[in-house]
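Researcher: Here's the sequence for the chain we discussed earlier.
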Amino acid sequence: TLQNKMYRSALKTEMKKYDAALASGDMAAAQAAYKVAVKKVDQAAAKGLIHKNNAANRKSAISKKVNAL
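Model: Thanks. This is the structure I predict for it:
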């Protein structure tokens, strides 16, 4: 339970960093944060914290955001 909480918290933290990078408007920072966020989403799906379809949906959503920037 504690490990799941740790991984879930890390995922949320990276998503917040990604959102902050998008809000700043800095393309380089947003792309760097995007790579880390996608990695964390994939890791969460591999560990069973989120469903694989949920992971795909999240990755699609963050891809759209960074492409719109």
